[in-house]
Amino acid sequence: MLAASAALISFSQEAVEYPITKAMGNPLFVDFPSQLYEGEGTGPFYSADASARVWNIDGRDVLYIYCSHDMAPAKGCDHMDRYHVFSTEDMINWTDHGEILNADDVRRELGWGCDGFMWAPDCVYNPADQLYYFYFPHPATEDWNNTWRIGVATSKYPDRDFKLQGYVEGMAKRIDPHVFIDDDGQPYIYNGGGAHCFGAKLKRDNWMELETEPVEMQGLYDYHEGTWIHKFNGRYYMTHPDNHSPKLGGNKMRYAVSDSPLGPWEDLGIYMDPTGIETNHGSIVNYKGQWYAFYHTGDFSGRGNLRSVCFEPITIRPDGTIEKVIPTWHRSYADRKDMK
Ligand code: FUB
Prior knowledge:
Blueprint: H1 2-7, E1 20-23, E2 33-35, E3 42-44, E4 46-57, E5 60-70, E6 82-88, E7 93-102, H2 103-110, E8 122-126, E9 131-139, E10 148-155, E11 163-167, E12 175-181, E13 187-193, E14 196-203, E15 206-210, E16 215-216, E17 228-232, E18 235-241, E19 253-258, E20 266-272, E21 283-287, E22 290-297, E23 308-314, H3 329-335
Antiparallel strand pairs: 1-7, 2-3, 4-5, 5-6, 6-7, 8-9, 9-10, 10-11, 12-13, 13-14, 14-15, 14-16, 17-18, 18-19, 19-20, 21-22, 22-23
The chain binds beta-L-arabinofuranose.
């Protein structure tokens, strides 16, 4: 039923000019057009795995979303073959800056890769060389489950002109790269999946090379994938989806704290209830003084593999605990005019 409602949204079949800006609420980005997977025409833009980053651009704080792109028709997560970048300055008007990278680019320019499988990415800014580093998980061959690499592309801009550089050698063959830069400028890189999470230092003068061997993070509870680190009052917070069963609503989002970016971690429990689909994956960011949790749902499509990024304002209490978030996915669905 939900999928049929979503299909009522129609888009122009003409070539799309980027950037495009539209006012929207949860679920985000579905009002933007998306190409179909190996098909003619366009449909709603489905997105997942949001990495939210705030950068000062020409004196203005701008929030960027680097996320993966669920392509319709979906076949599991196999067809996710490209990335777009989004931004906002008011959490209402969102800009789609267009595609920055796809799986064909990786195969053509780096000589490895496979169709699809451009999964949860991240992006950070290196002030030393004034480049944005875009990290993405992608298999080296069609044997996708055993050959994951963490690819890297860089750009002078946060939203365009990314050039593929290679991959981070020595990482675990797992997904969902995340880079955290500590206050002293030291970058750390994480990835994980299949209940294991790894972290390592990147070289300060080369953000594509490891300074230390990846070590498995200790003390996490029911870790699934989707590592995200933020710092609050001098402590390190890791948020991640757990393994909560899809039959019971899907992944919950948990958090753990540490006095070190590489743990050991102390689990502090759940900060977000399931969103009704198998996976969740998100990020936590402070924008203009307000903390936000980004996550994804399948509420617009009714399909677990045609997801939509959403966000909720959250409260981190003075004692460092996070007030539990009830995702507004039911309300956002009911509120949509085109669903009535
Ligand atoms: O989007 C593809 C995969 O699904 C991501 O890499 C995981 O975190 C899960 O959200």
